[in-house]
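#random but structural
TW: two for the price of one
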Amino acid sequence: MEKDIKILEEYKKIAKFMSCCYGENVEVILHDLIDINESGVEIYNGHISGRKKGAPISELGMKILKEKIYEKQDFISNSKGLVGGKVLRSSTYFIKNEIGKIIGLICVNINITKYLELAHEIEKFVNFDLKTKGDESLEIKADFPHSVKSMINTALIELLKGKESWKDMKMDEKLNIIKKLQKKGIFDLRGGVLEVSEALNISEPTIYRYLTKID
């Protein structure tokens, strides 16, 4: 019994140390299992759960003892808990004596309520008005070109994919590509006609002739 008391006295120091490390948003509780009705011998930042020294063991603690979870593992971590409208992330370390008997618990409860609220707000902001699966017909591919030239090159790569070179294409194919570039608004850009002519290695007048045929 005296050895068990000495072990728990050392864990009192650890509990205080942990509370100093993590701040007021983290509750640290040391349970002495000699009397589970008043097992909370040290409680730091008890405002999180509303408990004080002499508080009884929690429902989770009872489950640990009843199901003898401590025999299979040394701790459990990141369980979800609810208390007074707060959401807690709870972890419990099993304190054992020299012969492996469980004599205490050191519990850490992190109040994650405000972080969950923040995550929810960030998610709403990130997904604001974005199309979801099932809205494919309304989906618009967003592109962020660095220049007019890069925009035109991207458009041409897409339109010319799988096709022969420009000079080997038939007239209707050429007209179709010019029409698609026009639909994309490429020729509304300042220098658009020049950039396309250079990319396709044709003259500007040639492009204008194609455009008149489209009109």
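TW: number two ↓
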Amino acid sequence: MAGALATTALALTGDKRIQYATKTTLGPALAARVLRERRAGAIDGIDTGLLLIGLAAATTGDVFMVDADDDTRLRRGASAFGVMQSAYSQYLRQHGARPSLQTGAVNAAAAVGGAGLLRWRLPDVASTLTGYAFSLGVTSTLAADPNLAPGAPQVVGVVRPDRTDPRTWLGAGGVLFTASDATIVGRRMFLRGDAARRLSEGFVIISYAAAHLMFVEGMLRLRRSR
């Protein structure tokens, strides 16, 4: 998270060279955390593999997304993030996550609405980003399953994050992933001023880092609670 805060500050300068050197630190740091848990016997080989695949894909996507204004890099970054979301979805399924109709409908509606906007404003990248939006929706829907954190307090069927139980962070992590990615697209579609674009980029980085931290810590705790 410290790296994300530093990268956020650097994003406000607009210096892409520095961002390349700093933005890709999150994935390796979280991978080291996963490997420590594996060495301690807290997770098995399958779970370790899924998390490392997801983090490797995330780091690849981070490299491309440093310059999300370039259509080719945006498509490649979204494709890499799609692999990440698929790995995380499979991990959640293995631990009993099941989609709910209410959450699934909300995420599906958001993806469909986003697809329409993409076709209108960014047709050259619409198909790739739409595919990614649906993969993100699946992950977010599974992460919101309250059965992943049995006994945790809920508000209108949504698990309330508790700082003492990382399993309760998963649903909020899915929301932050969605907010971060929506900001990337919104920045491309609607923002023109340098100050607004840099501020939005800072939000993307910090929300993405928080989401990733919440997801990895939450998924690791799922294994330890079995």
